[in-house]
Specification:
Blueprint (H helix, E strand, L loop, with lengths): L3 H8 L15 H14 L4 H4 L8 H23 L20 E2 L9 E2 L2 H16 L17 H22 L1 H6 L3 H17 L12 H8 L1
Helix pairs in contact: 2-4, 4-5, 4-6, 4-8, 5-6
């Protein structure tokens, strides 16, 4: 990462949201450090995502969901100035895929929105989930809820849509900044993780199927 502009973008605060951090001294923080160490050591990403022996699956998944939220947030933050109501009036991934927003509050029915509006609602929605102690408990010994993996699947499916939109509509911006290798690595890490634990339905992965086949096999 010798590109100074890239360093500034990926190491500073060009995020869409403040980063969610792990409290030092907690089990989750130790797992986060272990996961980061594997990545920094250049370990094969297929191996890096595997559950370490003796660790709890829910803890491992929670650490990665928060990490992926921070990373995807950062990636979208780098292209968000070129993603406007005018350039992206629909949240889509090419002509075949359109994503509609639905939540438990204002948008009870799937609603077509511009990409920036969709992203804003999506990041808010995920932030609420990962900061909810009942869903993502931070105290050691507090059990995860029974529907934890269900919630996680929904979060990761929606985060995947950010990759779809960025790759299909804003990749020229990523390439222009010299960030292609970094974004590709983030994507591969995400892809291997969701495949390892079956956290996204195959049909959700369709829009990037050809690119993924070239990149991850």
């Amino acid at each position: 990462m010798s590109n100074p502009f890239l360093k500034q973008v990926f190491n500073k605060d060009k995020t869409f949201r403040p980063k969610r951090k792990f409290e030092p001294g907690t089990q989750r923080f130790e797992l986060h450090k272990r996961a980061q160490a594997s990545l920094n050591a250049g370990l094969d990403l297929r191996l890096a995502v595997q559950l370490p022996p003796g660790e709890d699956l829910h803890d491992w998944v929670a650490v990665h969901v928060v990490d992926f939220f921070n990373r995807v947030n950062l990636i979208y933050g780098t292209v968000s100035d070129g993603c406007s109501e005018q350039s992206c009036p629909v949240m889509s991934g090419g002509p075949k895929y359109e994503y509609r927003w639905q939540d438990e509050h204002k948008f009870r029915k799937p609603t077509a929105l511009s990409a920036p509006k969709y992203m804003d609602l999506l990041m808010d929605w995920i932030e609420v989930q990962i900061n909810n102690e009942d869903l993502f408990p931070t105290s050691v010994g507090t059990p995860f809820p029974k529907n934890f993996l269900q919630v996680v699947k929904k979060i990761l499916s929606r985060l995947f849509r950010v990759f779809v939109h960025v790759y299909i509509h804003h990749f020229d911006r990523i390439a222009q900044m010299g960030a292609e290798a970094h974004v590709n690595t983030c994507y591969k890490h995400f892809y291997y993780f969701v495949r390892e634990f079956g956290l996204i339905d195959t049909k959700e992965l369709e829009p990037l199927k050809e690119m993924t086949a070239r990149m991850c096999h």
